[in-house]
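User: Please predict the structure of the protein below. I'd like the answer in structure-token form so I can feed it into my own downstream comparison script.

Assistant: Understood. Taking the following sequence of 159 residues as input:
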Amino acid sequence: MARLAGRDPRLVETAVVQVPGAARRAAAFRRMRDARSSEVAEDYVELVGDLIAETGQARLTDLADCLGVAPATAAKVLQRLQRDGLVETRPYRSITLTEAGERMADASRDRHRIVHEFLLALGVTGETAEADAEGIEHHVSPETLRLFEALTERLRKAG
């Protein structure tokens, strides 16, 4: 611990060294943590919507099975999503999406489609493009997404 000049020597203080770019990096880390939380929410609401479209219902056990998590884990996430106004859950009933949840699921699907098509236009194989799009879709900015879409269109017209 370093004592700072001009301070009472009885006080023990820690000198904080300002690292160039530290605030920028801290902001980037904060954005990544927020994106990770949003990524989980997006995956869940997208899957709820897909299950309802495919089977007519979305049950906790189906979500847990599809995501490869314990039912207790899925239940905890669903509680958060309900608190955030994205899903509605009732005992012994199918999970449903709220309007906000439907908007989130649609936006996530659109981002996935744009990224997937961009990767395919670059020549990435279908399987790899699908896997990569799943990760990228949650972390891409609106600006980058617009550019992906525009470049994909240009590549299609050129090729």
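That's the full token string. The chain has six helices and two strands.
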